[in-house]
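Input for the complex:
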Amino acid sequence: MTTSLRPRRRAPWLGPCLLFGLSALQAQAAGTVPPLVPLPAHYQADPGAGFVLGDAARAGGSDDAGRRAAARFVDLLRQNGGPAVAVADSTGAAQIRFRLDPSATRPAEGYRLKVSDTGIDISAGDDVGLFYGAVTAAQLLTGDTPGQAAAATIDDAPRFPWRGFMLDSARHFQSMEEIKKLLDAMAQHKLNTFHWHLTDDQGWRMEIKRYPELTAVGSCRVPLGDAGRDPASGEPRRYCGYYTQEQIRDVIAYAADRHIQVIPEIDVPGHATAAIAAYPELGVTDQPLVIDNQWGVFQNLFNTEESTFQFLENVLEEVIQMFPARYVHVGGDEAVKDQWIASARVQQRMRELGAKDEMEMQSHIIKRLETFLERHDRRLIGWDEILEGGLPPEATVMSWRGTEGGLKAASEGHDVVMTPVTHMYMDYLQTDSPDEPPGRPTTITLQKAYEFEPVPDELAADKRAHILGLQANMFNEHTRNDRNLEHNLFPRLAAVAETGWSPRAQRDFAGFLQRLPRQLQRYQAMGIAYARTPFQVDLRDKGEHRTGQVRVDLVNPLGYPVHYTLDGSAVDAGSPRYVQPLQLEVPVRIQAAAFFQGRPLAAPRTFTLDAGSLLARDDTQLGLCPGDPKLLLRLEDDGPADGERAIFNVNIFSPCWLWSDVDLTGIGGIAVRAGRIPYNFQLANDEPSRTFAPARTAHGELEVLADCKGTPLVSLPLPASPDADGFVLLEAPIPASAARADLCIRFTGDTRPDLWTLDWVKLTPRD
Ligand code: ACM
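Predicted:
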């Protein structure tokens, strides 16, 4: 077939000579780099009109590896929303041509891609390089002008060999389809390591044939509250799920097809409740355990008997038969040692084994497993706690409590994967929007995730190669469904991928934001429920209820331009652009959206401000009370079992909300809508941080304090239970005052196993 050539759109201010020979960063700054995520190491614009994908275009390979890559390219292009392209038998009849070039000296995983008028040529030294070339080609053809690619030469290879994503399938379980969808998305971002967190306190999710109870018992729990009751019969309703060995092999093969290694995690010696519930002889105490429906840090540890070590080795033996990856993750995190300290038998074993303290005891187990894995030609990796008590040099450390553990480990000569909770935890929410799903409301914004640098400046130059790369972790206590999971992962996983792949000097958040909107369209084509919140507009208002005057900020969390209307009519790119706070008078209806290249990035939001809204706040608009210890969570109700649930921002250490700087003049009363949710947290050593103000009546009180101290303005006894819908409306008069005050609104008493939470608060004017 013939390819019809059409001139490509080009930035009008740049003459052709300026376009050529730019590095990826320069090209990005000049706006000429196509919307590739991650950004390639070297992008050079070439002379020529570029390539246009015709209706009869074909992809082909000049060898087996090339043909495999051509087939992958066809899938990738379709996933990205591109047209169907057939696979040709050879490169002769193809326009997208893949060729193995073993003679080329390229860095690992690298490839060269050349777009010319006649097509796209990709060459690499191996399958993986050709695959990444296919990923880039598919993105080029789903760029700003779909089906067209500008003439260019790309020489590309990753910065780090470990570009990871960890998925917790223990707290909540994902279908095979969802796992494969995530693997597809990983491949589209050139992520190459899937760390699968398969065992924890709340579930054992991997079939081990020698120990069938691990899944027969260990894969089920009864969730707390309504979610754990059949709505029709009232009988317990279990939450169950595990992957058979056949399914696990299927996942591994699917991942391998996309050049992703799958690293299993078996968490030892803590996070072990599900295993101990299945086989009580593995535990330290004689207490029978059930699989808990609580979150947090549990006390339960594996015991230190030889038979338990053998159990772990037997499990690992089946694990390494399933998982071909070089690494096996053995956890090691958050193993509070109280049970070992309290157990005479464990103390005796420590003496027998020569462990001088519990850290050394843990280290003994890790070393034993490490020796076992080495014997089977595998390498041990674990969370940074495995450094405590000593670690064999071959072990690799995953640094999650910050980067310090990774810095120490790399300085000592261990390989390290950086995955600090401060930047790489995808259960931390990404904006302050009320539309965020449940999770941890400390935000890790897209920018924060993007700006994480895995190689600490303090690390000596000769130790830097020990930093294998970085990884995003998705722990799933609060992420019950695929929609929320995908919301949390995307687009932040794109930011993590770029840090893992692109040279440090090329990374540039502003450039990333220019390339991102096209990536969102690819997500849409893949059916990925990426977060809309970073692309919406949030409204912050500060109003005076006595005058009806309100100052309004309209903010897009990523800084994309915001346009708005003030009469509630539809907003478009021609509507006024927001540049500074608006002084408005209520009532007013604002519609606002963020725009990129004339198109809204997400559905517009409409805000109605009236006299009532100036006197109302919901939980997401309130702060935390001063002085309290804090563990802020965004939690959902326990029911209904399926479907939408109410969500609350609550400090589980102290249920108290702060409304700052309230003008109480003319206020006669307060109304609080309160919800009640299960309190299901094990806090281990943090337990003493919980500080509930003492209750004065049987079920505690709703209290409102001016400036968060002194005699409460309001102290209203709480009912024994909420109404049938899980909420209760609490109303009380407020004494006359002409003051401004910071209002602290709290629930007193220790109401476990439930927790009262604030849904909204409204002040009512005095008649
Ligand atoms: C972890 O977050 N406990 C690794």
